[in-house]
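In this supplementary section we document a worked example of the pipeline. Step one takes a protein sequence of length 279 as its only input; no multiple sequence alignment statistics are reported here. Step two produces a three-dimensional model, which step three serialises into structure tokens for compact storage. The input and output of this example are shown verbatim.
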Amino acid sequence: MVRRIIQALTALLYNIHLKGFVTGRIYQGKLKKVCVPGLNCYSCPGAVGSCPIGSLQSSIGAVKYKISLYVAGLLIFVGALFGRFICGWMCPFGLVQEMLQKVPSPKLRKKPVFGVLKYGKYMILAVFVLLLPALSSLQKGVTIPAFCKYICPAGTLEAGIPLVALNESLQHSIGWLYYWKMILLAFVIMSAVIIYRPFCRFLCPLGAIYALFNRISLIGLRVDSSKCTRCGICTSACKVDIHPFDTPNNPECVRCGDCIKACPHRALKFSSIYKDTPF
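The serialised model returned by step three reads:
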């Protein structure tokens, strides 16, 4: 319940410019210079901050002019402090997927193909967030935010649909790219009904960045070996199909805390390197 409240409050704070959902106009104030830690589209009518992935693409695209250390520094700082805790607690699109997972249906878990698909997010990070924006800037002088333009279903849901619905001029100018992204969004939505957070696990480049820090972040999941009996109950509770008692800070762990709640021996908890910090 605590996590769900924080997820909802985070989504609200990221998109507190509520009148944008009425006027269909994007907030352009000073706060837009600040990146939020989670994935949240810059062009959402309610967004008051920038998406770190969109900002990273822009900074990569400007590499021939200057190197922006702000975005990279922010991602390193947040990743080193929290790892994928941000994914589990402070990502609006993660919340959407979790709500979809509650739709009654057969659920797919522990499939061998998931072990391959998890590398998709790293490929998307490398190709669509880093390589293509840099190449487009170097070759054409114009930065193409390839991930935002061609893939991001969160952007389609948060920005594409409301902006088109609220602006008649946009309704007459949509083309194949809009329909392509609607198809991708529909695919992610349908997948989220039967697979736990598929976008986060297989496609999200921000999740890929934070995953790199999961094993070393200051705040992480700790196992008390004196209490753990390796009963496997935490593994059964884990929706991303890892073994918390063996690899508590696996890169795929979004630190939702389900394993902590499930453990009958209270052997798992969130903590920092400075002091125990139970949630």
